[in-house]
Amino acid sequence: MEGQGMTIKDTPEEWEIRATDTPFVGNKTSVRTDDVVMPDGSVVRRDYQVHPGSVAVLALDGQDRVLLIRQYRHPVRQKLWEIPAGLLDIPGENPLHAAQRELYEEAHVKAEDWRVLTDVYTTPGGCDEAIRIFLARNLSEADGERFVVEDEEADMEHARVPVDELVRGVLAGELHNNCLVVGVLSLVAARASGGLDGLRPAGAPWPARPFEV
């Protein structure tokens, strides 16, 4: 089926659920099992992770470098280069406030200009996590004491890397973090299609994770 004449846009829809269970509840996430009615009337069991949602920050400095952090990720047994990110710990929390907090805590940096770069579902076949990736510009050192880190973050490294070098690393298969890959390629695409000032404002609606203004 060709796309001519179609509106290519994701749309809300919810199929009937005959039964649901939560066999595992963790500290931040849980696993849910739903019995879902298919279009032909059959009922199929679907297991998925329930996630509070996340924010990430592509912080771009005046020399066209992206602020990166590097930390150990146990599920994939690798140290990954990433952009600052964190969970939406408080239901209904304003994602911009959460993103500003993460940039401060992980990099001790603040930004004057904030835009929404892109919104994504990380793995919609098995998890309901939604991430809003912000573009932050006009960076400066944050005021006050540095945030005390722990666990994997205690081993965190920092770097500022040119955008072109990150694009090369993504396409070469050397960089794998979802938010970094999506954020950097979205930045390049935005520049090529109208410029960064055409991005959505930082407070743009986010149906996947409604929030308080």
Written overview of the protein:
There is one protein chain. With 213 residues, the protein is an alpha+beta fold. It contains three helices and eleven strands. The protein has a five-stranded mixed β-sheet. The chain has a three-stranded antiparallel β-sheet with strand order 1-2-3, with no helix packed on it. A three-stranded antiparallel β-sheet has the order 6-5-10. A hairpin with a 5-residue loop joins strand 2 (30-37) and strand 3. It is globular. The protein starts with 16 loop residues before the first strand and ends in a 12-residue tail after the last strand. 24% of the residues are buried. The mean pLDDT is 93.
Compose a concise summary of this entry.
By secondary structure, this protein is of the alpha+beta class. The protein is 17% helix and 38% strand. The protein has helices at 95-107, 163-171, 178-192, and strands spanning 17-25, 30-37, 43-50, 54-59, 65-73, 78-82, 85-87, 109-121, 130-141, 157-162, 200-201.
Task: Write down the secondary-structure element order.
Answer: EEEEEEEHEEEHHE
Largest sheet: 5 strands, mixed
User: What's the arrangement of strands in the largest beta sheet?
Assistant: 7-4-9-8-11
Number of helices: 3
Distance between the ends: 40 Å
Structural class: alpha+beta
Number of separate strands: 11
| Stretches with pLDDT under 50, minimum 5 residues | none
Strand content: 35-45%
Radius of gyration: 19 Å
Average pLDDT value?
Answer: 93
Helical content stands at 10-25%
Give the overall shape, derived from the CA principal axes. globular
